[in-house]
Amino acid sequence: MVKAVIIDDERNSRDIIALMLEKYCPFVEIAAMATDCADGIARIREHRPQLVFLDLEMPDGTGFDILAATQAELSFEAIFVTAFEKKFLQIIRLSEVELILKPVDKESLLQAVGTVVRRVEEKVVTRRYQVLMENFNSQQHHHWQVIIADKDNQEQVIFLGEIEFFESADDQAVFYLRDGRAVAAAGSFRYYLELFSGLRFYQLNNTQIVRLSAVARLSGDGARAVLQNGQTLDISERRKKELLTRLHGEH
Amino acid sequence: MLLCCCTAAITFATNRSELPDTLTIEPSAAPVAIDLRPYVGSIEDATGRLTIDAATQLPFYLNSQLFHAAPRNNSKPNNCWIKLNIKNPGSTNASWLLFTGWHDFMYWYEQDPGKAPSLLVQTGLMLDRGGVERWNNYAFVADIPAHHTRTFYLHIINKSFNENPFEPTLYNSSAFVKFQNAQVEGYRRESVVILVLLGMLLVILGISIINYIQLPDRSYLYFAIYVLGLILFFALRLESKPYQLSFFHRWPMLKYYWDIPGLLFCFYLMYLLFGNAFLNLKERYPFMERVFTWVAAVVGGLILICIYLIAAEQYHLPTIIYGYVYFGTLVPLLAIFIALARRSQHHPLVKFFLFGSVCLYLACLGSFLIHVRPLGLVGALGELSAPTILLIGGILLQAFFVLAGLSYRNKLVHMERTRTQEMLIKQLNKNKELQRKLNEQLEELVKEQTTEILRKKQELEEQRKIQLETEYVKKLTEIELKAIRAQINPHFIFNCLNSIQLFVMQRDFEFAQKYLSDFSFLIRKTLDFSRRNFISLADEITYLNTYLGLERMRFENRMEYEVIVDPEIATAELEIPAMLLQPYVENAVKHGMTNPRQTLGKLSIRFTQIEPDMLECIVEDNGIGITRARALRSLPKHHQSSGMEISQNRADLLNKMYNTEIQIEVIDKSVEQECNSGTLIRILIPQL
User: Using the beta-carbon criterion (under 8 Å), do B502 and A57 form an inter-chain contact?
Assistant: First the structure.
C-alpha cells in the first residue's frame, strides 16, 4: 500500500480525488486530507506519506511552499493537481514531476499514480523536487534545469543554457551539450519537442532543435546555422524565415 | 586690251602724203586766229615710247584726220606729236599762242635751229594741278625772235578714248583773249547749272543728315550717301569745264576716279541699298531684297574693278563695263519697277520711290540719247550722266520724290509709333487689369487653400481622433479579453467542472444539474457581456448573484454574501460598464476566505444612488485586507496577474473614451480602524 495525503482548499477537489483513488487505485491508502498549507505540512509530518496530492494555490500558500518546507526532512513523491496553471506547467514538467489537471480523468490519474508508485517502489534517489524548486525560484529560462532520464534510466540534470541542440536518433532524443557531452535520452524526440515548445529553442529541420542563443550566425546562403562551437546544422527551406525573426528577437 | 593689240613698232598715220610747210607769219597787232592744220605735221606713236630726241629725227607729215572740231571717240589712246615751224620775217619779236584743245597730257618743246629741243611747258587735264589760271597753260607761247624760224613740238597724250575737240590754232594775244572769253562764257552756262544743282543737292544732303540724326533710319543714311556721291560726282564734273571755278583741282586724277565708279556707286549701289531700306523690302518683298542685295554686291565689286582699271590707266574699260551694266540693267530695271508697282500698288512709299526712279531713269535715257548723236553709241556712254538740264531735272525730281517719300515714311513711322504707343498703353491697361484680376484670383486661391488647409487639418484631427478611438477600442478589446480571462478565472471554471464531476460521481444528479445550469448561465453571460461596454444594472446583479452562488457552493458555505440595491434605482434602465465589478468581487471572495480570524467570509455588495447622476458601488469583505493580502502574496511577484489592475485600466480607458469620470477607490478597512479588517472597494459611476 502506498500512503497518501491530499492537500486542497476545496472540498470538492479533495473528495473527487479521494473518490477516484478509492475506485481506481485501491493500492493507495489515503492517510489524511488537508485544506491549506499549514494543515498540509502538519499532516505530512504526522503521516509521513509516500505520496502527496498537492493543490497549487491555496489561501495561505502554494504547493511549492509545502514542498519547500518538507523536502529537507521527508522524502515523498508529489502529484500536483491544478485546474489551470500555464506558467507552472512547464517547470513542473521539466522537472519530471507528475501533474494532473482538473477535472481529473481516470487515465491521467492512473498514469500519474502509476509512475509515482513505481518510483516509490524502486526507491530511486531523485533531485527532481530540488530542481523544481530551483526552477520555481528562477526567473530566467536559461537558468531553468531539465531532468532527462537517459537510456540507462539515470537522471541527468541539465541547465537549458547548456544544451546546444538536440536531435532525433531512431526517434530517441540525443542532447548535445556545450561541454561536448552527448546525452541520449530515454524519451522520444517528439516528447522533448513538445516539452521544449515555448522555450527559446527552434526546430531547424525534421530532426534537430537548436537553442536560439547558441546560434552564432547563419552561413552566407542562409542554408546552415553555425553554432558558437563552430558546428553547423542544416536549416530546412521553409523554416529559414521564421528562424530569422526568432533570432532577431533573441539578439 | 586694245593696247595689247597694238604693234610694237612705231606706226605712222596713213596720210603721209606731204610734209607740212613752215608757217611764215608777221607779228600782227590785229586779232588773228590761224588754222594751223595745213602747217602742222604729226606723228602718231602707238607705243608711247617715243622720246623728244627720237621724235625730232622723224619726219612729220600732214594728217588732217587727226584733228576734229567736236569731241570724238578714238577707240584707243591717242599719243601723238605735232611739229610746227614758224618763221618770223618781221623785224620785231613775235609772240604767238598755240591752242589745240583740252587734252590729258601736253608737253610743249621749242627747238632752236641746231639745238636740242627743250621742254617749255607741260600741262594737261590729268597733269595740271593749278587753279583757274591753269587753263591758260593750254595756250602754248611761241616766241619767235625777229627774222628767225623756230620749230615747236607738242606732245599730246589722250589716255581716255573720248577726245576733246582737237584743232591746232595759232592766236596772237588779243585774239586769244577773245577766244578765252568765248570759252569762259561757253562753259559758264554748264557750270552754273552744275553749281545750282550742287547747291540744291547740298540742301538735300543737309536735310537728309538732319533727318537721319533726328530719326536714325538707314534709308536716310543711304540717301545722304547717295546725294553726297552725286555732289562729289558733279563737283568733279566742274573740273573739266575750262576757266570755271573748281574745288578739286589739286587732285587732277580724282575726276577720273569718280567718274564711272561714281556713276555705279550713286545710281546702282547706293540706289539699291536705299531702295532696300526705304521700301522695307526685307519684310515686304524678300525676293526683291535678295536681288537688290546681290546686285548691289556685284556693283560694289565692279566699282573696285573700275578703280583698279583707272589706276592701271585703262580708262576705256570702265566705260565699257558701265556700258554693259547700263544696257544690261535697262530692261531688268524696268521689270523691277513694274514688279514693285504691281506688288505694292497700294503702298504710297513705293509710289514715291517709283516716281523718283522713273524720273531718273527717263532723264538718264534722254541724256544718253542726246549724247548718242555727237559721240556715237559707245562714246555717249561716258556722258550718260553729263549734267544736261534734262538729267539735272531728273535727278532733282527724283531727289524731291525721295525726300517726299522719306517724309512720308517719317510720318508712317510716327504714326506707327503713335499706334504702338497707343497699343502699349492699351496693353499696359490690359496688363493692369489682368494683374488686378490675377491678384483677385490669387486672393481667392489663397482663401480657398487656407480653407482647404483648415479643412484638411480638421480632417487630420478627425482622423487622429478616429485613430485614437480605434486604438482605444483595440486596447479596450485587448483589456476586455484580458478581463474575460481574469473574470472567468480558469481555476474557477475547472474547479466548477471538477465539482460537477464530483456530484456526478456521487450520483447527486439534481445538484449536478443545478450546478451545471448555473455554470452555463454564467459562461453565457460572460461571453455576452464581454462584447458590450455597458450592461444594465439588473443584468449585473443577476450575474453577480449567479457567480457568488457558485462560489458559495464551491466553498461549502464557508462564505456569505449579500447584494443590496437602493430601491430608488431603476436597475433595468441604469447602465454600468460591463465586467467592471467582477474582478473586485472575485478578489473579495478570495480574501474573505483567507482570514484566519474569521471562519465565515462575509461579502457585501451595495448599489446606491448618492447623487442624481452618480451611482456608488461598494464591494466589501471581511478578509485580511488588501495590504496584508498583498504582503502575504503566496506567489513570487513574477507569477502574479491582477484582475484588479485590469479593471482599473479598463476604467481609465472608459473614462477617456466616454469622457466620463469613473472612480475606483480601494480602502483597507484596517487602516481606518484597527479592530476592523477587510477591504472596501468603492466605485463611483457617473450616469451619462
Answer: no
